[in-house]
Amino acid sequence: MSSPWLRMLLAPAASLALLGPSATATAAPDGSDVAASVHTAGRVQDSGDVLRYSWPGVYFEGRVRGTAVGVVLDDPAADHDVQVDGATVATLVAPGSTTHWVRGLRDGVHTVRLVKRNDTPWSTSAFGGFVAAPGGAVLAPPAARSRQIEFIGDSLTAGYGNLSTSRDCTGEQVARTTNADAGYGALTARRLRADYQLNAYSGLGMVRNYNGGSPEVTYRSFYDRALLNVPGDVWHAPGTWRPGLVVVHLGTNDFSTPLNPGEPWTDDTLAAAYRAAYTGFLEKLRTRHGPGTTLLAVGAGPFAAHVEQVVEERAAAGDRRVRFWRLDDTGLDHGGCHWHYSARDHRLLADRLTSHLAGLPIRW
């Protein structure tokens, strides 16, 4: 293959975790209303004493007074970072059922953040809240940010293998070196002081998945869910979730690998189906979020022209807040696992995306 773009998704089959074994996580309950004690913008299922979630990059923010803070978590598959006062103090690797304690803090008020690093769509994560040591207290959570962004994408948006020092990775190495919190979406949102969702699913496309795998599903099969491994699950967005910007970056998996014998496409019919599905997906987003939300459709490589055509047609039909952004991959090293974006690439893309957004009339 002649270019990094065409090589970037040459991952082992195990990394295309479309449909894996179900895992049910149950965090240790303490009888409290966890949702009231933390701030989150992610897609969570509220069970009162526990918040369940599946998408990468979901984060929880809280405030605790005292010299220690505990993080109640049950997760058999995903990794999480624990951050106190803006610094990462621990990475919990598939921790299972635990209360992880951060001790030795100065006696005072501390901000604490838990963030899910990687994408584990076959499993469910469960968060049971932050707890204080004896003599301390869990305080009211930080306020929500006034700006909100939703990022929709695949492994490139999930931060697949972005911390790897090699392009050759085992499935285990992919899991440990994926950090959505260091991806372009999270970086862009933080620069804009925005709350965000990273609704990214590795290996899936708009109409065709990586190398034609699992043809019975696509990204659109899972988009409405909070819990990805629960068939029929639907996330009911709270009234507080009103993103001023939705960024769609889907198409790499549809077009990065040649068609295989037996797939129901030709190059032309795949392109037509992709454009039709993309149009319908944008219509769905517009219906969901209303006319004031800016929809930014990202195009790259061989699918850029298709995305641009869809955006032009929607704009001509009267959608005044749909935009096209051609991703500039100049200078990217694709040094992550299997030719995905490296951490450096994600920083460059966040720079470019943030600069582009500065010129858009977004209604924050």
Note the beta-strand portion. 15-25%
Radius of gyration: 20 Å
Ends apart, CA distance between termini: 42 Å
Low-confidence stretches: 1-6, 8-31
Query: In which order are the strands of the major sheet placed?
Result: 1-2-9-4-7
Helix share bin: 10-25%
Principal-axis shape:
globular
Structural class: alpha/beta
Oligomer: single chain
Largest sheet: 5 strands, antiparallel
Count of helical stretches: 10
Q: Provide mean pLDDT, rounded.
A: 93
Number of strands: 15
* Order of secondary-structure elements: HHEEEEEEEEEEEHHHEHEHHEHEH
Report on this model:
Helix content is 24%, strand content 25%. The protein is built from 10 helices and 15 strands. It has helices at residues 4-7, 34-37, 155-158, 171-177, 184-191, 219-222, 252-255, 267-289, 304-316, 343-357; strands at 45-46, 51-53, 59-66, 69-75, 79-84, 87-93, 96-102, 108-116, 125-132, 137-139, 147-153, 194-200, 245-249, 294-299, 322-326. The chain has a 5-stranded antiparallel beta sheet with strand order 1-2-9-4-7. It has a 5-stranded antiparallel beta sheet with strand order 6-5-8-3-10, with no helix packed on it. Strands 12-11-13-14-15 form a 5-stranded parallel beta sheet, sandwiched between helices. The chain is globular and about 65 Å long. The N and C termini lie far apart (42 Å).
